[in-house]
Amino acid sequence: MATSGLYRRVLPSPPAIDFASDEGKKLFIEAIQAGTMEGFYKLISYFQTQSEPAYCGLASLSMVLNALAIDPGRKWKGPWRWYDESMLGCPKELKKIKAEGISFGNAVHWARRAGAEVEAFQTSQTDVDFFRQSVKKCFSLDNCHLVSSYHRAGLEQTGAGHFSPIGGYHAGSDMVLILDVARFKYRPHWVPLTLLWEAMDTVNKTTGQRRGFMLISKPKRDAGLLYTLSRKNESWVGVVKYLMDDVPHLLKSKDVKDIDGILSILLASPPSGFGKFIQSVAEVKREQECEELLKQVRDTGFFEYVVNFLPSTSCCSRVPVFGGCENLDEIAASVCSHGAEPDPNNCTSTRPVGSNILTVLLLMLPPETWCGIKDEILREEVQSLVSMDSLPAMLQRELYDLKKREENMAKRKSAVAQKRSAIA
């Protein structure tokens, strides 16, 4: 039997005050005059309706990311780079979110992965006074936005867990403006801050964790190309494992005598997902930065050093498949071209342009990687070559961002493991 469907819900008022009502307008004007609506204008410019009933978290994030003018670094549709809910996960992840929704912890993860600076607080970590101070601080700025995770029942609304950005604060009445991304259900509305806190101070039955709020802002400077690619590409996880775990182990287990031996080890055990990671370089339309970065890699001198030690017949040497590419030159051809295309009929004249990629990977390895090299002279030579102190400033910045990201990732994993161990 067909159902008639639903056309919106009546906003429970009180406790809420309709944004478009006379009282709601009055609160809005007074809050503007008090300077606690600074982020409203940018946020309202990108106000959107969630495209799926369970996409409230993704809609809130894409709305905030666009308001902060954070470039996704990849295309949405046509030539346009733009944050949409579909840009915040792979098809498998989106399918799960569509069915189950998203937890507070996962929403924080997606915001950080998208390149935003995020301060996240579960209600168990703080109190209502801290929340009020955070609201006041955030809404006195135009480059910080607050996303709340709360249970609708606390506001006498129908439904369960929900996410929405907060659009402003009225100090006189101690009320916040909820820009509800479920616009098909409830219009934007003011609610008492203490009531919203109580709605946040509830437990997600799926995770067993309390809800909370996050303060989202744009990084102080744009992330570099390599950092952007690593953040957008899931295959980077496999590359990182390779750099941090596999290569150091291989170097300790083998007796290498020269750079050529080190390169053989690298090529014999390619990192998981490396091909997909490299392919993503070509998809990011930031050719000028890519050109500048790789130019500086070449200018370090280490680039030429690697080139000299790569086999002159590398275009014919078969190596394990990297995402459909069967040799270094084919991989490099999918990135930014630097020099002539490989000539399969003249191996000796082929310049191994893939070494620019290999160079970046070598430079990314942590310093302790080389401690396993038994030959002391070779070990010192390699360590001096990969010292960040001698690299151009731009490349130092790129590699520092990458390494910092992986350090933070390791810290978060360690914290999660400790928490699980404590629970067990």
From TrEMBL:
Alphabetical GO biological process terms: phytochelatin biosynthetic process
Enzyme class, first EC level, given as a word: transferase
Gene Ontology molecular function terms on file: glutathione gamma-glutamylcysteinyltransferase activity; metal ion binding
A Pfam entry, by short name: Phytochelatin
Alphabetical keyword list: Acyltransferase, Cadmium, Metal-binding, Transferase
PROSITE patterns: PCS
Top-rank taxon, per record: Eukaryota
Gene3D superfamilies: Phytochelatin synthase, N-terminal domain
EC number of this enzyme: 2.3.2.15
Domain Peptidase C83 as annotated: residue spans: 1-221
Name of the protein in its database record: glutathione gamma-glutamylcysteinyltransferase
